[in-house]
Write a structure and sequence with these properties.
single chain, mainly alpha, 30s Ribosomal Protein S14, Chain N, 2 domains, two-stranded antiparallel sheet, 3 helices, 2 strands, elongated
Length: 99
């Protein structure tokens, strides 16, 4: 479990570090006013950026357990831990709904 969390953290760091470069290269490639030779250089440079720095490789995980499924993105907790913390009253502003 710890290795998965470390791997995800590494991917997040790579994404944060290479995000600007990736966006710049993609915008140059998609711009039709720029000559083809420059676009080819940008494609080559884009391919040199590590794959793990892509946004798609980042997985939302629970910050307490490392669970990858059923994670609420607004608090980065799994549904199980979220329910436990709510029932203990540790999350402020959360009330049980009833109608």
């Amino acid at each position: 479990m710890k290795n998965i969390v470390k791997r995800d953290q590494k991917r997040r760091n790579l994404f944060f570090k290479n995000e600007l470069k990736r966006v710049q290269y993609k915008s140059v490639i998609k711009n039709y006013k720029i000559p083809g030779e420059t676009k080819e250089k940008c494609v080559f440079k884009l391919n040199k950026i590590p794959r793990n720095s892509s946004r798609v490789r980042v997985k939302n995980r629970c910050i307490l357990t490392g669970r990858g499924k059923a994670v609420y993105s607004f608090c980065r907790l799994s549904r199980i831990r979220f329910r436990e913390l709510c029932s203990q009253g540790l999350l402020l502003g959360v009330t049980k709904s009833s109608w």
